[in-house]
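In these records, each integer encodes one residue's backbone shape. Here is one protein:

___
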Amino acid sequence: MFDVYITKAAKYLPNEAVSNDEMETYLGLINDTASKARRIILRNNKITSRYYAVDKNGESTHTNAELAKNAIVQLFDENFTDQDLEVLSCGTSSPDIIAPSHAAMVHGLLKNKSVELNSSMGICCSGMNALKYGFLSIKAGNSKNAICTGSEKVSTWLSAQKYNNEVINLKNLEAQPIIAFKKDFLRWMLSDGAGAFLLQNKPASEISLKIEWMEAYSYAFELEACMYAGGDKLENGDIKPWSEFTPEQWLNESVFAVKQDVKILDEFILPKGVESMSDAMAKHNIKAEDVDYFLPHVSSYFFVEGLKKGLDEKGIVLTDEKWFMNLLRVGNVGSASIYIAVEELMNSGKLKKGDKILLSVPESGRFSFAYAYLTVY
């Protein structure tokens, strides 16, 4: 088995930072009316700026694949060129198209040479799943290097025009023409961007992060879907897929909109997160004092105090100076968030040899959690 190191990290955040007051300029007004939920949601998540791969007219400036490619090319230099790449592993929850795979579309933009591809689909954990594929490939000796990415392009999914037909239909039914909270909620939570890691079987001359272990957990066997798109939830908790709706329903019921069941999110995301993180640390005999930097991907600051309390009750007391977060400034970029946070920490000048870093990524899709433990070299 071979050691695996993150030898370089890069990020790509499109265009200019978008403030809270500018969000509806980019995403548009549903039914020409400002969202009543927006200010409440932003007050809870505490995000002050984020990035969109669209302009103020709602026109795309980048595809998801282009965002990933723009992060990846920053990893190439005279010591590691695009011709040296062996494995490309890409994660996303918002691919540009259903098929071909996201990694194939990114590879098509790189135009370098034949490589092994892996596409990880899901929500936030898809970025960690992409990382684990590269990690295991190198660890097993299948390859000497890999580039792993997380990227999201959700702004066009969240644009007002995607909901207009539903509003028209609601008006025709003489109902209150307001989009359900489960759909409006995520319009003020998610944003665009990409992050990329270069993994190699030897450390770089500069700073490197050795991946000691990675763990992942799913609670889908006991919990129903919480965050979903391309279908709608039935009363029994099952998801009716888009292919079983008529094309008219796709528009009239915003079937492809990203939705969040806030009730079960609040009930399960923290307890299952604490449970899985405790299990991962116990499996590898890691205690709080063995962590110098804790990088949790959280969708909202609303969950931070609850997570701290839950971990404290498990005896995992991670003091405030160990927490490293950039949610306020870059927003919730889904699968890319953990890459962007690691890139910032890696290039911050704060790290010293021997420091230990714990990554924590929850996914509310059907409650999955992923962890990685890194050593600074």
Q: What stands out?
A: The CA atoms of residues 7 and 175 lie 56 Å apart. The chain has a mean pLDDT of 95. The chain has two domains: 5-206, 213-227+257-376. The domain at 5-206 is CATH 3.40.47.10 (Peroxisomal Thiolase; Chain A, domain 1).
